[in-house]
């Protein structure tokens, strides 16, 4: 770099630092500024020789992360300093955690240490379990929640600046973001950041979908602004009459949430009616907030008819993230449904800043904060090292994103649980011992099965017994990570006891068959009985599933067992001898994999049924070779996040010689001759082969499922478009 370029860059660094101080949400004292300045100087020194992939000086990254922490999340000077230093120990061997403690104190050092541990988690993709890395990262929640918050800010800036990365790296990082970081931001109450992370995640995992929705939203922006203006005009006079100080804003729905709604409801962009919400933010002291919120509710519903089942009162019962607001859905101008969110300025700050704003408004005599309660509740689940890592993270993730219900204990205490929770989840949320001794439950005074799904407002009573203990069925009934973790631990302990006995029984029985129980014979037995682990083997012997007869059969086949084992492991694909290589290439190898465009054996994943023309990727399974999934498969984000090392690029090269099965769902108004119209269109006009057809009609409304064979995606799209035009059909979607 020339001296002139260095001078320009240094000025830009100094400007970025000054902006950081200017945008801080917290009021910074002279000591705060001194701490931040010192952290900035150390970070500049530590990163002086580093550059990002884009070519800019690396120091811009920690400054940007600190700016997100200061402005978007609103944390204090200690957190801003830690954000500036978050990569120092990892990237520069001249600085240690001990140095951080000496220079900045114990708190900053602890946060930097937590962030360094997360960054240094090995990405050993041959053993991957990225999920194990996630678990270790989540354990830092117990040290200081600010570690995770700064890590979320770090991930947000990385997502904002990913354009210069390789596309496979972009997909991996974006999938991780959608899989764990966005749900974490949601759970901590950082809704703005969660929304941005989701949108950026979609931008890199499904760029065409993202760009299409973004363009359409830009085109409809003018119309939305005009609509918000007309809505505001109707209620402003009444609000002013009440002497309220307020602001009315329009908030467009995120691209990610519009996409989710399109997929879930099987509708087009144009058919998503609530593409934005209207937010009324009012000024109030703490004592009058609730009264004024309901007064505004009254004004809005005086002018617009509310949907009674869409009222959400998160003021009387705040979400466990700390979120407070009144949400109502009304019939607005032009007879369109509009969601109206009513919040005080304090509630709005908590919705946008989460943790930081909550503590700004928290009184010293407040009860334990929801976030603290949540972290304490998670501690046991996080420290359960016996759980399979992928299963653990999946459960944890579900609990992060789940909607909430509120239920009552027999004494009238209000408890928050994830939607879909059962009495068993409620029992474990009270206390582990209550959960372990559960023998039944009453909901609203009536006995219900343990699998009963609880609803908001239910009164739940748990019936216990000293003789009751968990059984394997409980895992089908429990939905929360805490309950499942405790049940698994109890079942594992019981299994281990039986397995210990089984091992001794096996030793004695093998001795009678003149076989020694050692590592070799154990591996042979596990393979022979098609089990996964030695624990499975000992357990089955313990409960008598593997008996004398089966062990004798094993002993007699032992001599040629090794060869059988090898043959089972090596299964060569058979190629018909009468088909030459060129014919195979042109007619059967429809997909190529990787940069070298290799032709490999594969099967289609049942979860998404890809067909030629779909955007796809290959996933290398442990036992079933390569499975091909659609890029928007429900399991794609989880696979790309947890097992990035097993993902291989895939693309279609020829689809003209083969047919693929696809499922179509129809609904609409039942007309005489409708089924005939559908079958005629498919079989006669389009010459598509139907494999199955089922229709049901209920009071004039029909639902139908058709399985067809098509050659490619274009053919399927053409079929669906034609079906939509049949009189009476309302919706056509691919399952």
From TrEMBL:
Q: Where is the TGS domain?
A: 403-464
User: Residue limits of the ACT domain?
Assistant: 663-735
> Does Aminoacyl-tRNA synthetase appear among the keywords?
no
State the UniProt keywords alphabetically.
Answer: Coiled coil
Does the record's keyword annotation contain Coiled coil?
yes
Report the record's Gene Ontology biological process terms. guanosine tetraphosphate metabolic process
Single GO cellular component term: plasma membrane
Ranges in coiled-coil conformation: 364-395, 496-523
**SMART domains to which the protein is assigned, alphabetical:** HDc, RelA_SpoT
**Hey, which family's this protein in?**
Belongs to the relA/spoT family.
Please name the PANTHER family in this protein's record.
Answer: GTP PYROPHOSPHOKINASE, GUANOSINE-3',5'-BIS DIPHOSPHATE 3'-PYROPHOSPHOHYDROLASE
Q: Explain the purpose of this protein.
A: In eubacteria ppGpp (guanosine 3'-diphosphate 5'-diphosphate) is a mediator of the stringent response that coordinates a variety of cellular activities in response to changes in nutritional abundance.
Protein name, entry field = Bifunctional (P)ppGpp synthetase/guanosine-3',5'-bis(Diphosphate) 3'-pyrophosphohydrolase
Q: Which organism is it from?
A: Winogradskyella luteola
